[in-house]
């Protein structure tokens, strides 16, 4: 069901007045920049979105659920390219100046207006089925690690490995189309630590000392990301006594998992007793975040999520869109974790890291 209620600020976010919250991590322009001339950062991101058009067009053309999909795909490609070229001439056109949120929103708006509501549905379903078939093996490997710190690191590496399944990245879309993805091989071949932002050792210490009572996890992609990355980690939190709220998108966007899809995935993974490979799931909740983009502005989430999250003491933003390109520097009233893989060269350059580098940013809020 699509969320129809009014959006509200995420209650654990330190408000914009208190923290100067800006959803976008990378500053696209400064007050001193000419409002009529695009900045170098704006131009590089406009080009990034231009380069993604062919892969989106290809997905749209192959959507068998849409009448005249090839015609609509061509219209999408033309309209979106024209808007992006307009931004190069006048950054204040189309509601600009452009940033990652606006560029994503305009792309989704055009797709939906043309009736192309979920062009990645087929590949999402295929990847979910593959990942579900591997879930028990991944759990068995994790559970066999007796050392708590090593098991946690293995779970974290699984999140990074799963997160590489991202069809919003033109480079990764091409690799996936050609080779597919091997989850276990990706786990073994992550860039070596220290990562570009690496607070894992600090998080391990906190993990060993206490359990959080309630965690909110903003989830990202379908397939290996949600099933083999996030769910084993969530299961471990459940096993430690933490209530876990998984917040998923309201509407489809790229290959991000939606609220309704996540409910189906969890139902398929549970056994007859409602357990996830021996762990009780009565404390696992699925929430509709109200979001409809691969990035998120936390000044507007669903009332349902706001209510469920109100007393959480851990917030996790997973994925490049929600945890790196937006909200990397967001401040919360509780402990927070931003975790994701760097899949755009522009982001790697901004962070001073490598392409496919990893971000594990942990902020602890000390009790008064």
Structure description:
The radius of gyration is 20 Å and the shape is globular. It has 14 helices and 9 strands. Helix 3 (69-89) packs antiparallel against helix 4 (100-113) and helix 6 (148-163) crosses helix 9 (200-209). A hairpin with a 2-residue loop joins strand 4 and strand 5. It has a domain at 121-159 and 193-363: Rossmann fold (3-Layer(aba) Sandwich), CATH 3.40.50. The protein has a 7-stranded mixed beta sheet, with helices on both faces. Strands 4-5 form a two-stranded antiparallel ribbon. The longest helix is centred in the middle third of the chain and has 23 residues, at 121-143. It has 368 residues and is α/β, with parallel strands linked by helices.
Task: Give the SSE layout.
Elements: H1 16-19, H2 40-61, H3 69-89, H4 100-113, H5 121-143, H6 148-163, H7 170-179, H8 183-188, E1 197-198, H9 200-209, E2 214-218, H10 224-239, E3 243-248, H11 259-269, E4 275-276, E5 279-280, E6 284-288, H12 303-309, E7 314-318, H13 320-325, E8 335-341, H14 345-351, E9 358-363
Parallel strand pairs: 1-9, 2-3, 2-7, 3-6, 7-8
Antiparallel strand pairs: 4-5, 8-9
Helix pairs in contact: 2-3, 3-4, 5-10, 6-9, 6-10
Compact overview of the structure:
The protein is an alpha/beta fold.
| CATH fold name of the domain at 121-159 and 193-363 | Rossmann fold
**CATH-defined superfamily of the domain at 121-159 and 193-363:** Uncharacterised protein PF01937, DUF89, domain 3
- Number of distinct helices: 14
CATH class of the domain at 121-159 and 193-363: Alpha Beta
């Amino acid at each position: 069901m699509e969320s129809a209620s009014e959006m509200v600020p995420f209650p654990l976010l330190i408000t914009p007045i208190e923290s100067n919250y800006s959803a976008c991590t990378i500053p696209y322009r400064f007050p001193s920049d000419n409002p009529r001339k695009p900045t170098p950062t704006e131009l590089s991101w406009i080009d990034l979105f231009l380069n993604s058009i062919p892969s989106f067009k290809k997905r749209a053309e192959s959507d068998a659920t849409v009448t005249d999909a090839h015609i609509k795909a061509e219209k999408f490609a033309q309209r979106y390219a024209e808007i992006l070229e307009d931004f190069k001439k006048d950054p204040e056109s189309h509601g600009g100046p452009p940033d990652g949120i606006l560029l994503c929103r305009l792309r989704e708006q055009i797709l939906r207006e043309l009736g192309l509501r979920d062009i990645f549905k087929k590949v999402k379903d295929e990847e979910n089925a593959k990942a579900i078939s591997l879930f028990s093996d991944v759990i068995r490997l994790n559970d066999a690690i007796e050392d708590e710190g090593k098991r946690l690191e293995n779970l974290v590496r699984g999140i990074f490995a799963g997160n590489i399944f991202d069809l919003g990245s033109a480079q990764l879309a091409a690799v996936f189309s050609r080779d597919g993805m091997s989850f276990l091989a990706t786990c073994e071949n992550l860039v070596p630590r220290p990562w570009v932002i690496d607070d894992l050792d600090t998080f391990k210490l906190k993990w060993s000392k206490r359990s959080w009572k309630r965690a909110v996890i903003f989830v990202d992609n379908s397939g290996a990301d949600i099933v083999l990355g996030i769910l084993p980690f969530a299961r471990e939190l459940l096993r430690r006594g933490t209530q876990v709220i998984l917040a998923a998108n309201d509407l489809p966007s790229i290959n991000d998992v939606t609220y309704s899809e996540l409910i189906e995935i969890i139902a398929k993974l549970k056994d007859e007793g409602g357990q996830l490979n021996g762990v009780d799931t009565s404390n696992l909740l699925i929430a509709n975040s109200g979001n409809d983009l691969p990035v998120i502005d936390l000044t507007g989430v669903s009332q349902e999520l706001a209510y469920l999250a109100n007393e959480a003491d851990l917030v996790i933003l997973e994925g490049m869109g929600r945890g790196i390109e937006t909200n990397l520097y967001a401040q919360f009233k509780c402990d927070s974790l931003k975790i994701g893989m760097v899949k755009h060269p522009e982001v790697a350059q901004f962070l001073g890291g490598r392409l496919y580098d990893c971000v594990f940013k942990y902020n602890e809020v000390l009790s008064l």
